[in-house]
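ok new one. same drill as before - structure tokens go in, u give me an amino acid for every spot. 203 of them this time. try not to just spam alanines like last time pls lmao
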């Protein structure tokens, strides 16, 4: 728990909200937490740089937010709303906010929303990284299988022999197996395009 609060004290926070009492309350609580706060208004078209958390306003007069609010970002997003009418809620659902704070703002609840948003955003990052690794693994497997198919057709060898040949090349060159497979596929496509393989079967 102590580490959690220590992390919060180093957070770079941007607040996109017009001046007024609500912003002063938010400012006071964030400063008490120890965050490095930067205030922005009017609403910016691009995501504020060098930020860990962004509080941004979604209200009845400004229901169209910038595109960066609706896409994946490194920063955790916390929406600030006034009215819970259908228009505002519809705009809110289009954003990528991890937490919501409703007006009138109070000191109580800001810390909880900050912790929740950070935790949720970190979880999404880990999940996205895991998905990316799985996609990379599947892509590599498809490349290797395609390269094996090329060698089987060109050399009239078994799939096991083809894989072993690719693996040996990777070991001797000290590069990943998938890199050898990719180079083999590109070479095969280049030879096919130039017609250098004569009557050999195209893959």
């Amino acid at each position: 728990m102590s580490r959690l609060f220590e992390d919060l004290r180093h957070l770079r926070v941007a607040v996109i909200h017009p001046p007024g009492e609500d912003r002063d309350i938010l400012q006071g609580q964030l400063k008490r937490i120890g965050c490095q706060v930067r205030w922005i208004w009017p609403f910016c078209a691009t995501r504020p740089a060098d930020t860990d958390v962004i509080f941004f306003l979604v209200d009845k007069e400004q229901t169209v937010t910038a595109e960066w609010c609706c896409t994946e970002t490194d920063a955790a997003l916390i929406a600030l709303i006034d009215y819970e009418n259908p228009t505002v809620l519809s705009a809110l659902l289009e954003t990528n906010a991890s937490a919501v704070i409703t007006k009138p703002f109070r000191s109580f609840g800001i810390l909880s929303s900050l912790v929740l948003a950070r935790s949720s955003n970190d979880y999404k990052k880990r999940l996205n990284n895991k998905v990316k690794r799985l996609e990379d693994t599947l892509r590599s497997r498809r490349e290797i299988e395609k390269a094996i198919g090329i060698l089987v057709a060109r050399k009239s060898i078994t799939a096991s022999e083809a894989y072993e040949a690719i693996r040996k090349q990777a070991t001797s060159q000290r590069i990943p197996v998938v890199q050898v497979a990719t180079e083999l596929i590109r070479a095969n496509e280049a030879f096919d395009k130039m017609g250098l393989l004569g009557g050999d079967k195209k893959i």
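The two ends are 58 Å apart (CA to CA). and btw The first helix runs from residue 2 to 8.
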